[in-house]
Protein: DUF1707 domain-containing protein
Organism: Amycolatopsis coloradensis
Amino acid sequence: MSEAPSPQLRISDRDRESALTALGEHLSVGRIDIDEFGERSAQVTAAKTRGELSEIFLDLPEPHPGFDAPVPVATEPEKPWAGISPMQRVMGALLPILFIASIALIVTTGVTWWFILVPIGISAVGEGIWGKGWDNAHKKLGKQRRRELDG
């Protein structure tokens, strides 16, 4: 059996919310009046440890506040490329360049405007292979690059 956590252990916002909810239940059944509810609520808000919070409920029956279990702090950050295959990354990066190159080629060399259908065709094929939204990979890549530059 594990021993009870120390009363000196710091409390969380969730612990305070639990205490305020318990106080509300005591108010609703008439164990405390509205003035006492206000005083005790202020004490709950100011409490920093489990001991301080528990003292507020010494003269009251259940319900008392529940204390949450310690939560591990270290979590693995979400990978920016999650769900995007290498081929999607390549195509997502190349597609905007291909559109710009096609337009530049049409404007500078007088190639027929039908040439713009090349990147449009690649987009359509990509959507057929990888599903709707595959070409948003270049948008995700751009957002990631901006975050890296800003951070």
Notes: The mean pLDDT is 78. The longest helix spans residues 86-109. The chain has two domains: 1-71, 86-143.
